[in-house]
Amino acid sequence: MDELEGIGHYQFKGDLGTGAFSTVKLALDHSKKRLVACKVIEKKAISTPSLKAKFESEIRILQQLSHPNIVQLYDLLKDDDRIYIIMEFCSGGELFEHILEREHLTEAEAKPMIKEILSGLKFVHSFGIAHRDLKPENLLFGDDGEIKISDFGFSRFVDQNGLAQTPCGSPCYAAPEVISGRPYDARKSDIWSTGVVAYAMLTGKLPWTQRNQNALFDQIRKGNFVIPNFLSPLCQDFLATLMEVSDKKRPSAEDALNHPWIANAPCYGQDNRQMRRSSHACISLQQVDKFFEDNKNISNSKNSTQTSISDEGENQYRVRAMCRCASDPPPLHSQNTQAHGMSAGMMNSRASNQVQKKYEIVMPEKMKKMSPQKKMQMRKPSAPKNHLPPLPINSQGQQHQIAPPTKPSMPSPRRK
Questions:
Q1: 6-91+273-309+346-374 CATH fold
Q2: Which sites are catalytic (predicted)?
Q3: 271 is annotated as contributing to ligand binding
Q4: Is 133 designated active site?
Q5: What pLDDT, on the 0 to 100 scale, is given for residue 275?
Q6: Annotated binding residue at 375?
Q7: Residue from 416, 372, 381, 406 nearest 95 by CA
Q8: What's the predicted TM-score (pTM) here?
Q9: What pLDDT, on the 0 to 100 scale, is given for residue 27?
C-alpha cells in the first residue's frame, strides 16, 4: 500500500497495524482536534458482491450502535482506490494484552469490565443484532479505562427468536450450539462467549484443555470444564450461569447484569462517558446511505485476490498464548471473513505508545489528568503476586466441578 498522508481533514500520524489489503492508521481529526483510528481498505479486497454486501451490513450495524461500551463509527470516505473508515481510537489497547500482562485479574478488577461488556451486549441485542465473535482481542480499553466492544465483522441482524445457522467466530469462544450444526440463538451464544471471556480474565486461561479440534468441540458440547475454587462462590455461580450448555437456560444480557455477583459493580469512567458520547457525534444514516448509493465506486476487478485481510499467524499466536497449547484447532469458518471487520484490535497499547512517541502526539486531556495510580490500574497493571496453575481435566464428565486448591507457580506467557 502506497504511503498516504491523509484524507480530507484527517492527517495520518502512523500505522497501528497492517494486513494484506488494509492498514489501520492513527490519524488526527483536525476538525474536532482528536485522535481517531482510520482503517484503509483497498477496494479490490471487497470487489465481489458477497463481500460488498458483508461490508455494507457491518457498516450499517455500526451506524446504529451509539453506546459508551461500543467502538464508535465516526466517518466514511473513499477515493478511486480505497475506502477509509474513521473509528473511535481506543488508547488503552486490547483486553487480551492486559490479561497476558497480568496473567489474571482479581474479581474486583474484572467485575466492572464484565459489567460493561454485558451492558454493551444488552444494547446490541436490543436492536436485534448479535455480535457472534466476542473474545478478548475484540474488547478494547477507552481513555477512561472503560471496555468497548469492537469488530462487528461476523455480526448480523436476527429474527425475534435470535436464530442464526452459520457457525462462525473463534472456536475457543464458540457456544455448544454454534458448533452443533443446527440453528442457534445467536444472542445466547454471545452470552456463552462472554462467560469464556470472563473465565479467561479471572483465571488467565481458557476453560478448555483439549488440543485437537474434535476433542475440543466435544469438551465444549458437554460443558466439560472446571471452575477453580479460589474464586468466590458467587463468582463461580456467575461463570456457570453464563456457560450453561443449554441455551434455553442461559440468561439474557439483561438477566446476567442482575446476577448478585455483578449487579452492584461500578463502571470505569462512568462520570465522563455520557459527556464524551454527546460530544463525539457519530455518523448519520443519511451519510451512510450516500456513501453506498453509488456501488460503481467500489471496483469490480475480475482479478480480485483472497478475501482475508487479517494476519493468520498473529491470530494463531493469540490462541496459543491463551490456551498454552502446542497446536490449535482451525477457525470455524473456512474463510476468514473477520478480515473486513472494523476492529481496532490491531491498535494494541504497545503500537499506540510507539506511534505517540515517534510523532510526539499528546493524548486527550482526560488521560493527562488521570492519576498515575489509575493509569496503572486501567492500562498498565502490574503482575500479580500469585501465579495460577493450569486447570485439570474434568475426567468425570460432570459440569462445573471445582478444582483442587493447589497453586504451584507458573512462568508468565511469552511470545514465540
A1: Phosphorylase Kinase; domain 1 (3.30.200)
A2: 133 (proton acceptor)
A3: no
A4: yes
A5: 39
A6: no
A7: 381
A8: 0.72
A9: 96
